[in-house]
Amino acid sequence: MTAPPRLEVQSLTRSFNGQAVVENVSFSVEAGQVACLLGPSGCGKSTTLRLVAGVDMPDSGHILVDGKTMCDAATHVPPERRSVGLMFQDFALFPHLPVSENVAFGLKGGFSANRDRVRELLARVQMSSHIDSYPHQLSGGEQQRVALIRALAPQPRILLMDEPFSGLDERLRDGIRDETLALLKEEGTAVLLVTHEPDEAMRMADQILLMRRGRIVQQGAPYNLYNAPVDREAAGFFSDINILTGKVQGALTNTPFGEFLAPGVADGQEVEIVIRPQHLKIDFDRAGRGPAPTAENGSAALARVRRARFLGRESLVEFITDNGEITLNATVPGVFLPSADTPMWLMLRRDRVFVFPKK
Ligand SMILES: Nc1ncnc2c1ncn2[C@@H]1O[C@H](COP(=O)(O)OP(=O)(O)OP(=O)(O)O)[C@@H](O)[C@H]1O
Protein backbone atom coordinates (compact mmCIF):
# COMPACT_ATOMS: atom_id res chain seq x y z
CA MET A 1 0.00 0.00 0.00
CA THR A 2 1.36 3.44 -0.88
CA ALA A 3 1.71 5.98 1.89
CA PRO A 4 -0.93 8.71 2.04
CA PRO A 5 0.18 12.21 0.99
CA ARG A 6 1.86 14.24 3.70
CA LEU A 7 -0.84 16.89 3.39
CA GLU A 8 -4.22 16.38 1.83
CA VAL A 9 -6.88 19.05 1.53
CA GLN A 10 -10.33 18.05 0.32
CA SER A 11 -13.12 20.41 -0.75
CA LEU A 12 -12.19 23.16 1.68
CA THR A 13 -14.66 26.05 1.88
CA ARG A 14 -14.57 29.15 4.07
CA SER A 15 -16.90 32.16 3.89
CA PHE A 16 -16.81 35.51 5.60
CA ASN A 17 -20.07 37.44 5.86
CA GLY A 18 -21.78 35.10 3.41
CA GLN A 19 -19.02 35.51 0.83
CA ALA A 20 -16.97 32.42 -0.07
CA VAL A 21 -13.30 33.37 0.18
CA VAL A 22 -12.06 29.78 -0.23
CA GLU A 23 -14.33 27.58 -2.31
CA ASN A 24 -14.08 23.85 -2.80
CA VAL A 25 -10.27 23.83 -2.69
CA SER A 26 -8.58 20.41 -3.00
CA PHE A 27 -4.93 19.49 -3.39
CA SER A 28 -2.26 17.31 -1.86
CA VAL A 29 1.43 17.73 -1.11
CA GLU A 30 3.91 14.87 -0.79
CA ALA A 31 6.86 14.76 1.61
CA GLY A 32 9.80 16.64 0.10
CA GLN A 33 7.56 18.57 -2.25
CA VAL A 34 7.04 22.33 -2.46
CA ALA A 35 3.56 23.42 -3.48
CA CYS A 36 2.91 27.11 -4.16
CA LEU A 37 -0.45 28.75 -3.73
CA LEU A 38 -0.18 31.45 -6.38
CA GLY A 39 -2.67 34.16 -7.22
CA PRO A 40 -3.48 37.86 -7.07
CA SER A 41 -4.03 39.72 -3.83
CA GLY A 42 -7.25 38.76 -2.08
CA CYS A 43 -7.82 35.46 -3.92
CA GLY A 44 -7.82 33.42 -0.71
CA LYS A 45 -4.25 32.12 -0.46
CA SER A 46 -3.55 33.18 3.12
CA THR A 47 -6.96 32.03 4.27
CA THR A 48 -6.22 28.57 2.84
CA LEU A 49 -2.90 28.53 4.67
CA ARG A 50 -4.54 29.55 7.94
CA LEU A 51 -7.08 26.75 7.61
CA VAL A 52 -4.27 24.23 7.14
CA ALA A 53 -2.41 25.69 10.12
CA GLY A 54 -5.53 25.30 12.23
CA VAL A 55 -5.76 28.93 13.30
CA ASP A 56 -9.03 29.23 11.37
CA MET A 57 -11.85 26.72 10.85
CA PRO A 58 -13.37 25.84 7.48
CA ASP A 59 -17.15 25.79 6.94
CA SER A 60 -16.70 22.42 5.28
CA GLY A 61 -13.98 20.13 3.94
CA HIS A 62 -11.27 17.85 5.26
CA ILE A 63 -7.61 18.35 6.10
CA LEU A 64 -5.44 15.28 6.58
CA VAL A 65 -1.78 14.98 7.59
CA ASP A 66 -0.21 11.60 6.79
CA GLY A 67 -3.72 10.25 6.34
CA LYS A 68 -4.87 11.39 9.80
CA THR A 69 -7.80 13.76 10.00
CA MET A 70 -6.84 17.16 11.40
CA CYS A 71 -10.09 18.81 10.59
CA ASP A 72 -13.54 17.86 9.37
CA ALA A 73 -17.13 18.30 10.53
CA ALA A 74 -16.37 16.42 13.78
CA THR A 75 -12.66 17.00 14.41
CA HIS A 76 -10.47 20.01 15.02
CA VAL A 77 -6.90 19.25 16.03
CA PRO A 78 -5.41 22.46 17.51
CA PRO A 79 -2.52 24.13 15.65
CA GLU A 80 0.17 23.03 18.11
CA ARG A 81 -0.73 19.35 17.60
CA ARG A 82 -0.67 19.39 13.78
CA SER A 83 3.13 19.20 13.43
CA VAL A 84 3.05 22.25 11.24
CA GLY A 85 5.84 24.83 11.09
CA LEU A 86 5.05 28.42 10.24
CA MET A 87 7.08 31.09 8.52
CA PHE A 88 5.21 34.27 7.79
CA GLN A 89 5.99 37.56 6.09
CA ASP A 90 6.74 39.30 9.38
CA PHE A 91 8.91 36.46 10.59
CA ALA A 92 10.04 38.54 13.57
CA LEU A 93 12.70 36.85 15.65
CA PHE A 94 12.54 37.36 19.40
CA PRO A 95 14.70 40.47 19.87
CA HIS A 96 15.70 39.67 23.46
CA LEU A 97 17.00 36.17 22.62
CA PRO A 98 20.30 35.29 20.96
CA VAL A 99 20.28 33.32 17.71
CA SER A 100 20.88 30.05 19.58
CA GLU A 101 17.70 30.45 21.67
CA ASN A 102 15.70 31.76 18.73
CA VAL A 103 16.50 28.63 16.73
CA ALA A 104 15.80 26.39 19.74
CA PHE A 105 12.53 28.14 20.57
CA GLY A 106 10.25 25.32 19.41
CA LEU A 107 12.42 22.59 20.96
CA LYS A 108 11.84 21.16 24.40
CA GLY A 109 14.55 22.34 26.80
CA GLY A 110 15.74 25.24 24.65
CA PHE A 111 19.31 25.54 23.39
CA SER A 112 21.00 23.79 26.33
CA ALA A 113 19.07 20.58 25.61
CA ASN A 114 19.46 20.79 21.81
CA ARG A 115 22.94 22.09 21.12
CA ASP A 116 23.73 19.63 18.34
CA ARG A 117 20.57 20.20 16.34
CA VAL A 118 20.87 23.99 16.60
CA ARG A 119 24.56 23.96 15.63
CA GLU A 120 23.89 21.63 12.71
CA LEU A 121 21.11 23.86 11.37
CA LEU A 122 23.19 27.02 11.77
CA ALA A 123 26.03 25.38 9.88
CA ARG A 124 23.68 24.41 7.06
CA VAL A 125 22.78 28.06 6.45
CA GLN A 126 26.35 29.33 7.02
CA MET A 127 25.38 31.11 10.23
CA SER A 128 27.55 29.27 12.77
CA SER A 129 29.58 32.35 13.62
CA HIS A 130 26.39 34.23 14.58
CA ILE A 131 25.25 31.78 17.24
CA ASP A 132 25.59 34.37 20.06
CA SER A 133 24.40 37.38 18.06
CA TYR A 134 21.11 39.12 18.71
CA PRO A 135 18.60 39.72 15.89
CA HIS A 136 19.35 43.46 15.62
CA GLN A 137 22.98 42.58 14.83
CA LEU A 138 21.95 40.59 11.73
CA SER A 139 21.15 41.72 8.19
CA GLY A 140 17.69 41.06 6.73
CA GLY A 141 18.96 38.02 4.83
CA GLU A 142 20.64 36.61 7.94
CA GLN A 143 17.48 37.08 9.99
CA GLN A 144 15.58 35.28 7.27
CA ARG A 145 17.89 32.30 7.51
CA VAL A 146 17.50 32.13 11.28
CA ALA A 147 13.71 32.31 10.91
CA LEU A 148 13.81 29.45 8.42
CA ILE A 149 15.83 27.13 10.61
CA ARG A 150 13.77 28.11 13.64
CA ALA A 151 10.70 26.88 11.76
CA LEU A 152 12.48 23.70 10.68
CA ALA A 153 14.15 22.88 14.01
CA PRO A 154 11.27 20.82 15.46
CA GLN A 155 11.15 18.83 12.18
CA PRO A 156 7.56 19.71 11.32
CA ARG A 157 5.70 17.33 8.98
CA ILE A 158 4.58 20.38 7.02
CA LEU A 159 6.04 23.86 6.68
CA LEU A 160 3.67 26.71 5.84
CA MET A 161 5.27 29.83 4.38
CA ASP A 162 3.37 33.04 3.64
CA GLU A 163 5.26 35.41 1.32
CA PRO A 164 8.46 34.54 3.21
CA PHE A 165 10.80 36.48 0.92
CA SER A 166 8.81 39.65 0.35
CA GLY A 167 10.67 41.70 2.97
CA LEU A 168 14.05 41.08 1.36
CA ASP A 169 16.14 43.20 -0.92
CA GLU A 170 15.58 42.04 -4.49
CA ARG A 171 19.24 41.28 -5.07
CA LEU A 172 19.35 39.01 -2.03
CA ARG A 173 16.15 37.23 -2.84
CA ASP A 174 17.19 34.79 -5.55
CA GLY A 175 20.14 33.52 -3.54
CA ILE A 176 18.08 33.06 -0.39
CA ARG A 177 15.28 31.34 -2.31
CA ASP A 178 17.76 28.85 -3.75
CA GLU A 179 19.38 28.23 -0.36
CA THR A 180 15.99 27.79 1.26
CA LEU A 181 14.89 25.35 -1.40
CA ALA A 182 18.03 23.27 -0.97
CA LEU A 183 17.50 23.07 2.80
CA LEU A 184 13.81 22.21 2.45
CA LYS A 185 14.68 19.39 0.07
CA GLU A 186 17.31 18.05 2.46
CA GLU A 187 14.85 18.10 5.35
CA GLY A 188 12.21 16.36 3.24
CA THR A 189 9.36 18.32 4.74
CA ALA A 190 6.22 19.09 2.73
CA VAL A 191 5.98 22.80 2.03
CA LEU A 192 2.96 24.93 1.24
CA LEU A 193 4.14 28.37 0.19
CA VAL A 194 1.95 31.39 -0.53
CA THR A 195 3.09 33.92 -3.09
CA HIS A 196 1.61 36.41 -5.53
CA GLU A 197 4.77 36.38 -7.64
CA PRO A 198 4.77 33.98 -10.57
CA ASP A 199 8.59 34.08 -10.81
CA GLU A 200 8.88 32.94 -7.21
CA ALA A 201 6.41 30.11 -7.75
CA MET A 202 8.19 29.01 -10.93
CA ARG A 203 11.50 29.00 -9.11
CA MET A 204 10.38 27.22 -5.95
CA ALA A 205 7.47 24.96 -6.77
CA ASP A 206 7.21 21.33 -7.72
CA GLN A 207 3.53 22.04 -7.99
CA ILE A 208 1.72 25.33 -8.52
CA LEU A 209 -1.85 25.78 -7.28
CA LEU A 210 -3.14 28.75 -9.25
CA MET A 211 -5.95 30.49 -7.35
CA ARG A 212 -8.51 33.01 -8.50
CA ARG A 213 -11.49 34.32 -6.52
CA GLY A 214 -11.27 31.54 -3.92
CA ARG A 215 -10.91 28.65 -6.33
CA ILE A 216 -8.00 26.68 -7.71
CA VAL A 217 -8.27 27.21 -11.46
CA GLN A 218 -5.27 25.11 -12.45
CA GLN A 219 -2.70 22.95 -10.70
CA GLY A 220 0.41 21.21 -11.90
CA ALA A 221 4.12 21.53 -12.55
CA PRO A 222 5.35 25.06 -13.42
CA TYR A 223 6.20 23.87 -16.96
CA ASN A 224 2.63 22.75 -17.55
CA LEU A 225 1.02 25.91 -16.23
CA TYR A 226 3.29 28.07 -18.34
CA ASN A 227 3.01 26.03 -21.51
CA ALA A 228 -0.59 24.86 -21.27
CA PRO A 229 -2.54 27.56 -19.42
CA VAL A 230 -6.18 26.79 -18.79
CA ASP A 231 -7.46 30.18 -19.96
CA ARG A 232 -6.38 33.65 -21.03
CA GLU A 233 -6.09 34.95 -17.47
CA ALA A 234 -3.87 32.03 -16.49
CA ALA A 235 -1.63 32.69 -19.50
CA GLY A 236 -1.46 36.38 -18.63
CA PHE A 237 -0.56 35.73 -15.02
CA PHE A 238 2.87 34.38 -15.95
CA SER A 239 3.98 36.98 -18.52
CA ASP A 240 2.78 39.75 -20.78
CA ILE A 241 0.67 38.37 -23.59
CA ASN A 242 -0.56 39.46 -27.00
CA ILE A 243 -4.21 38.84 -27.80
CA LEU A 244 -5.77 38.65 -31.27
CA THR A 245 -9.45 38.00 -31.75
CA GLY A 246 -11.18 36.03 -34.48
CA LYS A 247 -14.46 34.35 -35.38
CA VAL A 248 -14.67 30.59 -35.81
CA GLN A 249 -15.87 28.89 -38.98
CA GLY A 250 -15.54 25.14 -39.34
CA ALA A 251 -13.31 24.81 -36.22
CA LEU A 252 -10.84 27.32 -37.70
CA THR A 253 -10.30 31.03 -37.32
CA ASN A 254 -8.70 33.09 -40.00
CA THR A 255 -6.27 35.95 -39.23
CA PRO A 256 -3.58 37.89 -41.09
CA PHE A 257 -1.18 35.29 -39.62
CA GLY A 258 -3.02 32.39 -41.22
CA GLU A 259 -5.54 29.96 -39.83
CA PHE A 260 -5.66 28.70 -36.27
CA LEU A 261 -7.38 25.57 -35.06
CA ALA A 262 -10.27 26.08 -32.65
CA PRO A 263 -11.47 22.53 -32.02
CA GLY A 264 -14.84 22.18 -30.38
CA VAL A 265 -15.71 25.86 -30.78
CA ALA A 266 -19.07 26.53 -32.45
CA ASP A 267 -19.33 28.45 -35.73
CA GLY A 268 -19.70 32.19 -35.21
CA GLN A 269 -18.19 32.10 -31.69
CA GLU A 270 -15.36 34.56 -31.03
CA VAL A 271 -12.00 33.27 -29.88
CA GLU A 272 -8.90 34.87 -28.43
CA ILE A 273 -5.55 33.87 -29.84
CA VAL A 274 -2.88 34.35 -27.20
CA ILE A 275 0.89 34.43 -27.69
CA ARG A 276 3.72 35.57 -25.41
CA PRO A 277 6.00 38.35 -26.75
CA GLN A 278 9.02 36.04 -26.89
CA HIS A 279 7.27 33.63 -29.24
CA LEU A 280 6.81 35.94 -32.22
CA LYS A 281 9.09 35.27 -35.13
CA ILE A 282 10.42 38.38 -36.84
CA ASP A 283 11.90 38.66 -40.30
CA PHE A 284 13.28 41.59 -42.28
CA ASP A 285 11.36 42.92 -45.25
CA ARG A 286 12.96 42.08 -48.58
CA ALA A 287 11.48 44.35 -51.23
CA GLY A 288 7.91 43.83 -50.01
CA ARG A 289 8.20 40.06 -49.85
CA GLY A 290 7.94 38.05 -46.68
CA PRO A 291 8.85 34.49 -45.77
CA ALA A 292 6.69 31.72 -47.27
CA PRO A 293 4.06 30.19 -44.99
CA THR A 294 5.09 27.13 -42.99
CA ALA A 295 3.18 24.62 -40.86
CA GLU A 296 5.34 25.64 -37.90
CA ASN A 297 4.80 29.40 -38.10
CA GLY A 298 1.75 29.97 -40.32
CA SER A 299 1.65 32.99 -42.65
CA ALA A 300 3.70 36.13 -42.23
CA ALA A 301 1.96 39.49 -41.86
CA LEU A 302 3.66 42.79 -42.63
CA ALA A 303 3.94 45.17 -39.69
CA ARG A 304 5.83 48.30 -38.73
CA VAL A 305 7.79 49.14 -35.64
CA ARG A 306 5.85 51.61 -33.55
CA ARG A 307 8.54 51.92 -30.94
CA ALA A 308 11.37 49.86 -29.51
CA ARG A 309 12.76 50.02 -25.99
CA PHE A 310 16.10 48.68 -24.87
CA LEU A 311 15.69 46.81 -21.56
CA GLY A 312 19.18 45.40 -21.14
CA ARG A 313 19.18 41.70 -21.80
CA GLU A 314 16.31 42.13 -24.25
CA SER A 315 14.45 44.78 -26.20
CA LEU A 316 10.72 45.23 -26.29
CA VAL A 317 9.44 46.06 -29.75
CA GLU A 318 5.89 47.22 -30.35
CA PHE A 319 4.51 46.51 -33.82
CA ILE A 320 1.38 47.51 -35.65
CA THR A 321 0.20 45.46 -38.63
CA ASP A 322 0.06 47.26 -41.96
CA ASN A 323 -3.74 47.18 -42.00
CA GLY A 324 -3.54 49.18 -38.75
CA GLU A 325 -5.67 46.67 -36.87
CA ILE A 326 -3.39 44.63 -34.67
CA THR A 327 -0.79 45.76 -32.15
CA LEU A 328 1.72 43.17 -31.02
CA ASN A 329 4.63 43.25 -28.58
CA ALA A 330 7.72 41.19 -29.23
CA THR A 331 10.77 40.68 -27.07
CA VAL A 332 14.03 40.17 -28.89
CA PRO A 333 17.68 39.95 -27.80
CA GLY A 334 18.85 43.36 -26.55
CA VAL A 335 21.37 43.78 -29.35
CA PHE A 336 18.50 44.29 -31.77
CA LEU A 337 16.81 47.69 -31.55
CA PRO A 338 15.00 48.62 -34.79
CA SER A 339 14.00 52.23 -35.39
CA ALA A 340 10.39 53.35 -35.61
CA ASP A 341 8.59 52.66 -38.88
CA THR A 342 10.89 49.81 -39.94
CA PRO A 343 8.76 47.32 -41.90
CA MET A 344 9.11 43.72 -40.72
CA TRP A 345 7.31 40.42 -41.19
CA LEU A 346 5.81 38.75 -38.15
CA MET A 347 4.86 35.13 -37.67
CA LEU A 348 3.30 33.38 -34.68
CA ARG A 349 4.83 30.08 -33.59
CA ARG A 350 1.98 27.61 -33.78
CA ASP A 351 3.24 25.43 -30.93
CA ARG A 352 3.27 28.48 -28.63
CA VAL A 353 -0.14 29.86 -29.47
CA PHE A 354 -3.18 29.29 -27.24
CA VAL A 355 -6.70 29.61 -28.58
CA PHE A 356 -9.48 30.20 -26.04
CA PRO A 357 -13.20 30.86 -26.55
CA LYS A 358 -13.87 34.50 -25.68
CA LYS A 359 -15.62 34.83 -22.33
N1 LIG B 1 -11.23 37.33 9.11
C1 LIG B 1 -11.75 37.82 7.99
N2 LIG B 1 -12.93 38.46 7.99
C2 LIG B 1 -13.46 38.95 6.86
N3 LIG B 1 -12.88 38.86 5.65
C3 LIG B 1 -11.71 38.25 5.58
C4 LIG B 1 -11.06 37.69 6.73
N4 LIG B 1 -9.90 37.13 6.35
C5 LIG B 1 -9.80 37.32 5.02
N5 LIG B 1 -10.87 37.99 4.56
C6 LIG B 1 -11.13 38.38 3.14
O1 LIG B 1 -10.93 37.24 2.35
C7 LIG B 1 -10.33 37.57 1.10
C8 LIG B 1 -9.09 36.72 0.87
O2 LIG B 1 -8.10 37.08 1.80
P1 LIG B 1 -6.69 36.34 1.84
O3 LIG B 1 -5.87 37.03 2.88
O4 LIG B 1 -6.90 34.89 1.97
O5 LIG B 1 -6.15 36.66 0.40
P2 LIG B 1 -4.70 36.48 -0.21
O6 LIG B 1 -4.87 35.82 -1.52
O7 LIG B 1 -3.79 35.84 0.76
O8 LIG B 1 -4.28 37.97 -0.46
P3 LIG B 1 -2.90 38.76 -0.12
O9 LIG B 1 -1.90 38.27 -1.09
O10 LIG B 1 -3.29 40.19 -0.33
O11 LIG B 1 -2.59 38.44 1.31
C9 LIG B 1 -10.04 39.07 1.16
O12 LIG B 1 -11.06 39.74 0.45
C10 LIG B 1 -10.10 39.37 2.64
O13 LIG B 1 -10.53 40.69 2.83
Description:
The chain is α+β, with helices and mostly antiparallel strands. It has helices spanning 45-53, 99-103, 110-113, 115-124, 140-152, 170-187, 198-204, 222-227, 232-238; strands at 7-16, 19-29, 34-38, 60-65, 68-71, 84-88, 158-162, 190-195, 207-212, 215-220, 242-249, 252-255, 258-261, 270-275, 280-284, 301-310, 314-321, 327-333, 343-348, 354-357. It has 2 domains: 7-236, Rossmann fold; 241-357, Nucleic acid-binding proteins (OB fold (Dihydrolipoamide Acetyltransferase, E2P), Beta Barrel). It contains 9 helices and 20 strands. The mean pLDDT is 92. The chain is globular. It has a 6-stranded mixed beta sheet with strand order 6-7-8-3-9-10, sandwiched between helices. A 5-stranded antiparallel beta sheet has the order 13-12-11-14-20, with no helix packed on it. Strands 15-19-16-17-18 form a 5-stranded antiparallel beta sheet, with no helix packed on it. The site of adenosine-5'-triphosphate has 11 residues, from α1.
Task: Please identify which CATH superfamily of the largest domain we are dealing with.
Answer: P-loop containing nucleotide triphosphate hydrolases
Q: What is the radius of gyration computed over CA atoms, rounded to a whole number of angstroms?
A: 25 Å
Shape: globular
CATH topology of the largest domain: Rossmann fold
- SSE succession: EEEHEEEHHHHEHEHEEHHEEEEEEEEEE
Bound molecules: adenosine-5'-triphosphate
Query: Distance between termini?
Result: 44 Å
Instruction: Determine the oligomeric state from the structure.
Output: single chain
> What is the architecture of the largest domain at the second tier of CATH?
3-Layer(aba) Sandwich
Lateral arrangement of strands in the main beta sheet: 6-7-8-3-9-10
Please indicate the percent range of residues in DSSP E strands (runs of 2 or more). 35-45%
Number of β-strand runs: 20
Q: What is the level 1 CATH name of the largest domain?
A: Alpha Beta
Which whole number gives the mean pLDDT?
92
**Uncertain residue ranges:** none
- The proportion of residues forming helix, as a percent range, comes to 10-25%
